[in-house]
Design brief:
Layout lengths: L1 E5 L4 H5 L2 H10 L4 E7 L3 H4 L7 E5 L4 H18 L3 E4 L4 H9 L4 E5 L10 E3 L10 H9 L23 H13 L7 E6 L11 H14 L3 E6 L5 H15 L15 H10 L2 E5 L2 H6 L6 E4 L5 H4 L9 E4 L20 H4 L3 H15 L1
Parallel strand pairs: 1-2, 1-4, 2-3, 4-5, 5-6, 7-8, 7-9, 9-10, 10-11
Helix pairs in contact: 7-10, 8-9, 8-14
Length: 358
């Protein structure tokens, strides 16, 4: 039996599909399991032990995209898959699912695209407090022969194995940056491609300074997306100024790193702090303590999906009538779900997570 999973676009969404890979491998141990992903998120599943074939596609545009998708459709049809799961539900992924010609094509009951599948699964509209992994798990229930198994993060957590070669490279880079094995490394992701998930810069400065001052053996390392490097530099500069010259070395100058290197850095860290973005969910694939900062999104939907015994803190402003939202327009206009979230609340959660891990 040959099974294809399709999940396009965002890094965090790809991470959330990995529990399904483990479950499929367990339920159908002799099946050939293929995964179709866009290049930007391919590193998440590149070393996944349950995948037999990884199909990486580019996100081209215009006529080039049409030509690329036609070639890809021919390749998928020639592979003769028995089951296709469209975990995305967008126009491109649903068309590719149809193009495979697989006898079982499972996707969400989306208006205008349901006819592209042989079986559809109802997905209620709106922002319901149900985890994204559980929503995707519903697609498994539509497969012939699927056992009646509920999703469980302690049994099927998110996965992204560390590349040993990358881990060695990161260890050397950390030593070159002055981070020794006895240092407690804290990784803080200070950016988000979506302004609805971006915590204010002064709050990050306060967080970084407080964590660094609390223990001389701590070293803070910042990460950011490509579009937010300037903001990360501003935050680092302001944090060093607050720390003073005698403590400025506790904020590490490290340089850029890719997703595989980020995963290795998380593995080496004593704590990860960040908003509801791809790096947070990559961090969830480790056993490292996590503090997740939520703005308009709900922890019930996007909290780290892993063993609940691992230290994980979700911090948010509760009681706002406008939360959650669809992240298109901030109705109050002030992004209060983030701007009113105090640094002290995140600092307290971080120290609590560190104590739990100790």
């Amino acid at each position: 039996m040959k099974i294809l999973l399709i999940r396009l676009r965002l890094i965090g969404d790809v991470v959330f599909t990995t529990p399904l890979l483990r479950a499929l491998d367990r339920a159908f141990p002799n099946a050939h399991l293929a995964y179709l992903v866009e290049r930007e998120a391919a590193a998440v599943v590149a070393r996944n032990p349950h995948i037999d074939e990884l199909i990486v596609v580019t996100r081209s545009r215009g006529w080039r995209r049409i030509a690329d998708d036609v070639r890809l459709a021919r390749r998928l049809r020639a592979a003769r898959f028995d089951i296709v799961l469209d975990l995305h539900g967008g126009p491109r992924s649903s068309w590719l699912a149809r193009a495979t010609g697989a006898p079982q094509r499972v996707g969400y009951d989306v208006e205008g695209r349901s006819w592209l599948y042989t079986r559809t699964v109802y997905r209620p509209p709106g922002l319901h407090p149900r985890h994204s992994v559980a929503n995707q798990w519903d697609l498994l229930d539509a497969i012939d022969g699927w056992p009646e198994v509920e999703p469980d993060p302690s049994r099927d957590p998110v996965e992204m194995p560390v590349d040993p070669f990358v881990a060695r490279r990161i260890s050397q880079r950390l030593r070159d940056a002055g981070v020794e094995p006895h240092h407690a490394l804290i990784l803080v992701h200070v950016s988000a491609g979506n302004p609805f998930r971006r915590w204010p810069e002064p709050a990050f400065v306060r967080l970084i300074a407080a964590l660094a001052v609390a223990d001389p053996l701590r070293r803070i390392l910042l990460s950011s997306g490509p579009s937010d490097r300037v903001a990360a530099m501003r935050i680092a500069s302001a944090a060093r100024a607050e720390l003073g010259s005698d403590r400025a070395d506790r904020l590490v100058e490290f340089g850029e790193f890719d997703l595989a290197e980020l995963r290795a850095l998380v593995e080496r860290s004593s704590l990860f702090v960040g908003g509801d973005t791809g790096p947070l969910h990559i961090a969830a694939t480790s056993r490292t303590p996590i503090v997740a900062i939520f703005g308009p999104t709900l922890a019930a939907r996007s909290a780290p999906w892993r063993d609940p015994r691992l230290p994980s803190e979700s911090v948010a402003v509760e009681g706002l009538a406008c939360r959650p939202c669809d992240q298109r327009v901030c109705l109050p206009g002030d992004f209060r779900c983030l701007t009113t979230l105090s640094a002290e609340k995140v600092i307290t959660a971080a120290e609590r997570a560190l104590r739990r891990s100790a």
